Amino acid sequence: MLCARGGWRALRRCASLPRAVRLRVREALGAREPAEAVRVQGWVRSVRSQKEVLFLHINDGSSLESLQVVADPSLEKRDLTFGSAVEVQGKLVKSPHKMQNMELQAETIHVVGPCDIWSFPLKMRERHPLEYVRQFPHLRCRNNTLGALLRIRSEATASIHSFFQDNGYVHIHTPIITSNDCEGAGELFQIETSREEEDSVEKSHFFNVPAFLTVSGQLHLEVMAGAFTHVFTFGPTFRAENSQSRRHLAEFYMVEAELSFTESLQDIMQVMEDLFKTVTGTVLSKCPRDVELFHKYIAPAQKGRLEQMLKHKFMIISYSEAVEILKQAPQTFTFKPEWGCDLQTEHEKYLVKHCGDVPVFVVNYPYDLKPFYMRDNEDGPQHTVAAVDLLVPGVGELCGGSLREERLPFLESRLERLGLTDAYQWYLDLRKFGSVPHGGFGMGFERYLQYILGVDNIKDVIPFPRFSHSCLL
Ligand code: 4AD
Ligand code: MG
To answer: Where is the Aminoacyl-transfer RNA synthetases class-II family profile domain positioned along the sequence (predicted)?
Structure first.
């Protein structure tokens, strides 16, 4: 056996070829046995030239660790610098260093693409602050922190899909272009063609109706939940929130699920909690070194907390209880807590702290605060809907969900009062043709990453952040 992963198969396939076997850095580092004639391609993370020996570290994004290359100083060239792209061929041997399993003894080093280190904004062996590398969205993926983040992001994405597929959900591609405003908050980006039309009316009617970038796939998922019972979607979502806050983006990714034949918020909360715990468990076990980097350098307080959190049930409080807790708080808030008012970030933070710095579900929000689709609890005098938000330490709201109003008369009268009856005829149809109790939720993927990794600013957990006054690249 040559190595732990695909390298063995790769070697077998190429055994009769004269060309050395190409290994990813991760495969080379994980190899169980030495090998002759190995080829590694990547970018130079460090160069150290000594009298007798030349040391390089090569990284190709397959792992946080770089592969050490040991070479004769005669192989050194002027353009073999930090940041350059190289192909190294040689022997894979056991490394004498405790920290590394294998190293590559170079026979040839080919500089595929040189790097002008004087103008390259990343510097060798420097731990650049996240704010600094944010200025270079085209280069920051070559930095350790962003590299780790993007591997974790990829693993978490795969795990989200597996979670739903394993539990019998059908994945739906909900549209990005839509004519509805699901949340009714008016945070829509309207779509227009870029063609210069003489007739501006024609220009704004490419689809015959005003069209927008989606703020949520929920309503389309509700359509599908009327045929498949369990559906999910996971895609880009757009909100024209004029906010520079550390938890808002104009383009973010949302995981959304919709469940039919569901009569209690408890069922929805169970899926949220299971999703959160399953994906986090997978990330912790599949990307331990990448996660460790965040918990060591970015958010030391987070170390060990996630493992603890995974062992306990999330807490549940009602909105009314939350307001009482806030009213009795020994501190004053900028926004005075009052029944009927939205929970502000400062309130969410306090509630999470008050509950012991663990994830907390807040259920049953005031009827007047929430969108038209939420199910009326028919209570009073404090009238509520069956809504649920999941609040988490450091981030605040991570998920938002609800039971949906499946009763035709209730939905008709609510839409009527909002003047939305015509626009939502198709939605009313769903309540006429085999309506069932159902509900679902959406989880902000970037906020999820922020929470598990302890990253303060949401712009650092997405490859190319878009927010008001900024759309680089
Ligand atoms: O609470 P929201 O608005 O819920 C919905 O859109 C529902 N229609 C989802 C559903 O039931 N299918 O958004 C869901 C989550 C929020 O809890 C938050 O984590 C995230 O999406 N989110 C944002 N993340 C980053 N930037 C923004 N501007 C966000 N707005 C919402
Ligand atoms: Mg919400």
So the answer is: 150-463
